[in-house]
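Hi C.,

You asked whether I'd gotten around to modeling the 373-residue construct. I have! Everything is below, sequence then structure, no commentary in between.
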Amino acid sequence: MAESYLCAIGTALPPCRLPQARIADFMVRTLALDAVAARRLRALYRASGIDARHTVVPDYGRQPADFTFYPPAPDLEPFPAVGARMAAYRAAAVPLAANAIADCLRQVAAVGVASITHLITVSCTGMYAPGLDVDLIGALGLPATVQRTAVNFMGCYAAFNGLKLADAIVRADAGARVVVVCVELCTLHFQKHLSDDHLLSNALFADGAAAVLVAGAPLAPGAPALALEASHCALEPAGHADMAWHIGDSGFEMTLSSYVPDLIRAGIGQLTDRLLRALRLRPADVAHVAIHPGGRRILEVIEQALALPRDANRHAYSVLRECGNMSSATVLFVLRRLLAELTPAQRDERVLSFAFGPGLTLESLLLRVAFPA
């Protein structure tokens, strides 16, 4: 039976890296918080599990007189509207996604841009047409005949939708070479609301891009690949209003309730059981996990629900600490770190990966460690 393999994963980050404490200073000043509210906000940032985040908006580390995206006023008024944010998205998303794809293809010397047959772009933080897919053809010199698909506005679990689509393409055509690229510029959508949901979102989200080459066999000599064995999706309707993403007059507005970890805790065990039963596997048959680090507490409740040791989640914690939550790209950063440490002795070991998003949607993939023959 035909299989698909994640042959290489590339990543890219904007050059502007800001410590979490410095971003908290910006938020306290911009939101005009009193001393009590400022202490609460700084405590939230310290408890986030994030040391630093990358952004395409350097203003978060500047004083108003030096702003280049926001107006040079303490309250950021007139606040940028959707059009200005989408223009900034287009300017920054194309080079960032191109860098992630280039980083991916560098790992597989035998696969050049001319051999790419399909391009799947994934993003929930910007949209335009002709879109990111068309611009990437020009930026990278991809063939004009590349078949293109866009996965838009599906949130943090959308990388899995891109991978499942790539899997279907490769299983139908073993000669296909599919690039899936996720690019998210979450920090373009800062909102000045004082609700707990918005304060939490502002404390977590960041910018980044990741790209995967999916093919019908491992292609990087001597390097591990991940065979995609199965997937399972679950929907928790009770969380419909707890994680949402709406287009407002001043950008995209994220709702992220503090109840989300509890909803994930309630559903993750059943999701895992169903996926493993479909393959006649037990939890003990899974050697590795790669979990989307939506936040520190999300990682902790999954560890509790699945009886995972903290070390099993080390890659997710390190990505969260160093990069924050980059929406759909984040789980691919985790998978890249896992992929980099695998050895031939771990051939055929299973990897269980999770991601979560609006709905409340819980997505999972089961992968198998493979090496070129």
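If it helps when you're writing up: The first helix runs from residue 20 to 30.

Thanks,
B.
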